[in-house]
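Consider the tokenized backbone below.
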């Protein structure tokens, strides 16, 4: 799926709505049937549009799967800033960001499982997964670099390498918890993830173990 072959995004409001309906329908079908068994006719039926309409917006099943995963990526990149009263508190921002990411991962667990499975057999999806991961790494690396510049984080670690390690830790644990169903209390997960982030970067914090645990 290259820029040379991908369909251009629609410009009209009607086209935008139709494309979004197809993406929403594809999510339903992928979560229900899996990637390999999902059929384009099922997607268009779910979207209540003609099969030919699909090709106005997407080249194939792989491209619409990428569109579905792009939507989840945008949701999971949510920094959690509006959930924080004191935005100058790095630990509070990290906690809100971890919470937003983990809540989104939990909502999208079926798709995250599909992404992992399809990436192991489809080179295009494998590249999609790799590029998707780097978006999170680069976002977090910028935040770490900013904290270092302000004297709030360990200046002796490379921000990109630190981001790769810390981001990988959170994403793999989220996969184990919400896809493999390893279990664990959600509030304790947020607390521990945030404390590890702060400790690793030598960020001052006053985090304490939550008293009332969320048993979801």
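A designed sequence for it:
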């Amino acid at each position: 799926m290259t820029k040379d072959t991908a369909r251009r995004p629609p410009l009209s409001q009607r086209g935008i709505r139709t494309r979004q309906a197809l993406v929403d329908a594809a999510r339903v079908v992928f979560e229900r049937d899996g990637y390999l068994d999902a059929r384009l006719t099922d997607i268009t039926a779910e979207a209540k549009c003609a099969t030919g309409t699909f090709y106005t917006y997407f080249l194939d099943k792989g491209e619409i799967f990428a569109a579905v995963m792009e939507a989840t990526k945008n949701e999971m990149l949510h920094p959690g800033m509006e959930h924080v009263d004191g935005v100058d508190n790095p630990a509070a921002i990290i906690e809100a960001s971890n919470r937003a990411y983990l809540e989104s991962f939990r909502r999208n667990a079926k798709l995250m499982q599909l992404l992992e499975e399809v990436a192991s057999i489809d080179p295009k999806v494998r590249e999609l997964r790799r590029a998707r991961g780097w978006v999170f790494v680069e976002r977090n690396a910028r935040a770490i670099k900013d904290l270092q510049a302000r004297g709030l984080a360990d200046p002796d670690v490379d921000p990109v390498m630190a981001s790769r390690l810390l981001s990988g830790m959170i994403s793999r644990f989220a996969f184990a918890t919400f896809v493999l169903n390893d279990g664990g209390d959600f509030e304790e997960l947020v607390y521990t993830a945030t404390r590890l982030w702060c400790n690793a970067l030598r960020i001052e914090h006053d985090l304490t173990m939550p008293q009332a645990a969320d048993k979801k």
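Residues 28 and 79 are 26 Å apart (CA to CA).
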